[in-house]
Amino acid sequence: MAKRTRTLNAYANYKRLKAAEERMSMALARPMVVDIPLRREEETRPAPVARCVEKRTDGRECGRPAEEGSTRCGMHRQWYQTAAAAMGFPFPGDAIGMHDMLARLFTLVAQGTFPPEHAKVLLDICRLMQKNLREYEGLREWEERNG
Asked: Which residues pair with 51 in a beta bridge?
């Protein structure tokens, strides 16, 4: 009995496959119209990513992606929220920026408008930033080379 059931099931499957093949051959025999809309090249490109508007001290643009709802990248946005930026210190994004920051600090201390004790702390911070800067510039060059 089990053998007969298997035979009937196999026959039913065979009939289903044959019917599907026949439908496919009929569908392929009829001409088909495929509507493919033509798009202009600019419509298929992804929207450009907004870039940071800040300039580096060497004149090049920052180039990092701007944060949503902002014209600056996260680094520059955070910088402009600091007390140092409010005091007029430049963003220390490269060696020139670091030099400008130290020159500004020197001027403030020499004028007596900035306490020397605070300047020592800032100088230590600048040393740490300078060490960090070397790594950052190396990473930036790698990003520019590797897209």
From this structure: 65
